[in-house]
Every structure is written in C-alpha cells, then in structure tokens.
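Sequence in, structure out. Go.
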Amino acid sequence: MARVEAKARTDILAEHFSELAWLWERREAMLFSPAFGPGALAAHDRRMEGHVRGLVVAGEDAVPLLAAAIESDDPATAAAAAYVLLRRGTLAGDRAVLRALTGAEGARLDAIRRAVCMAPIDAIAPELGDLLATGPAPAAAAAAEALAFHGRLDAAAPRLARLRADEDPAVRRAAWRAVALSGAAPVAGGS
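Output:
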C-alpha cells in the first residue's frame, strides 16, 4: 500500500511540475505579446502559483524531480525548477540554483535569471554579489540583473563597468539591463 501511495504522490508531483513548466513557457510568450494585458498575466500567475504551492508543500518528496529538472536543457523546465527551489527556501535548493545559474548558457541562462528575478533572493543575495564580483561573465551579468531587479545592486560595483563593455553582446545587454533596473546612471569605466 505504501508503494502505491508513493507512486501516486510522485505522479501528482510530476503532473504539477509538468503543468508549471508549460505555464512558465506560456508566461514568457505572454510577456512579449501585445495580445495579453496585465489582467491576463495576473490570472496566469495565479494559476502558476497553485502548482508552485503544490510542489513547495510536497517538501523533500519534490526534490528529486526539481533536482533533475533544473539540469534540463529546456529553458522553461530549468527556470520553473529554479523558481520552485528558491521558493522552498532550503540551503540545498539555493545552492542548486546558484550552480545552475553559474553553469548555464544562452536561453537556459536567460530563463534561470528570470526565475531568480521573480523568486525571493534574501538567502542567496550575498552569493549573487560574489558571483557578480568573481563569476564567469555571463553568470556575473545575470547575477547583477537579478540583484538590480530586487533593488540590491550596487551600481558602482567595479565589475559592472567591465561587464557593460564585455565582448559578448548577451553579457553587455544583461549588464545594461541591470544598470537600467537599478535606476542609477552608469559609473565611468565602461561604454
């Protein structure tokens, strides 16, 4: 009987996560579509929140699913996992998100960055600051943007000027978005 219950619980969690990943991908499309207004986005976010809560209250039962999903090459899957892991508020989950943010590239990095922007970052803000200061340029720029989104970026951070002038256009865009989100004028030292 216990095996049947465990299998049913695993299946329910997989269904919650599958729906959340699909809704995450849909949300990304909604953000850039003129067909959806703020009301539609808010309704969509409420629907997502139901699945997030289902995964958060599952506690440790959800960890294997989330740990595998954050490593996915699918950006929406990785972002949904990162968001839930940060919402769970555990040290292991926070570390998994930081590892994923550090090692991600391209669309996967962008998606995880947006998840970090949307999630609470109190527990990882110092590590995001460290990542900005010493991490690989793409991850550092993503960390800067997440910190700025949460109002925690020091626009005078020495690395930020270098990131704004980085040879990688994606790094430059993220660094400039961070400056714009911080509301500060760029500090001399970069384009």
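Check: The chain has a mean pLDDT of 91. Residues 93 and 170 are 27 Å apart (CA to CA).
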